[in-house]
Amino acid sequence: MAKEFNESTNSVRVELNRLTEAGLLKTEEEGRIKVYKANEQHPFFSEISNMVSKFLGLDELMEKIVRRMGPVQKAYIIGDYAMGLDSGEIEILLIGKDLDIQYLDFLKNKTYEKLQRKVKVTIQDSDPGESTGIMIFGN
């Protein structure tokens, strides 16, 4: 985790201990290794689990977009969701030419199915400072 978050092992250990003290995590000893697990009995477990699922679902969505839409140069989450506000709509800005527009309908339906959020996609053919070609797709 320390490498993943670019933090010191001590910082990670301190935060894991805080989460354990708060009852959000449980620990088990496996030899010399301390294993942390989510405390499924914690009153906020289901809400935290839903938030993580939504975040990971969004992460997965962005990966699929980049892989399946064609030559995506850049992909951004913009609007309310990017500012940490959940308005029920996810706005995405894609930059690239010759993207697979037909895939968007499938993508929007799948996203709503998985995350219960509408998706609005704006496509630009190059970086904002360089482009005039903009297409907007929404529900």
Protein traits:
two-stranded antiparallel sheet, alpha+beta, single chain, 4 helices, four-stranded mixed β-sheet, Beta Polymerase, domain 2, 139 residues
Write structural notes for this entry:
This protein is of the alpha+beta class and 139 residues long. The chain has 2 domains: 2-38, no CATH class; 51-137, Beta Polymerase, domain 2, CATH 3.30.460. The protein has helices at 2-5, 9-21, 45-68, 103-115; strands spanning 25-30, 33-38, 72-78, 89-96, 118-124, 134-137. The longest helix has 24 residues, at 45-68.
Biggest sheet, spatial arrangement of strands: 3-4-5-6
Structural class: alpha+beta
Query: What is the β-strand count?
Result: 6
Q: Give the total of domains.
A: 2
In terms of DSSP E residues, the strand content is 25-35%
Output the number of helix runs: 4
What's the architecture of the largest domain, going by CATH? Answer: 2-Layer Sandwich
Distance between the termini: 38 Å
Topology:
Elements: H1 2-5, H2 9-21, E1 25-30, E2 33-38, H3 45-68, E3 72-78, E4 89-96, H4 103-115, E5 118-124, E6 134-137
Parallel strand pairs: 4-5
Antiparallel strand pairs: 1-2, 3-4, 5-6
Helix pairs in contact: 3-4
Short description:
By secondary structure, the protein is an alpha+beta fold. It is 39% helix and 27% strand.
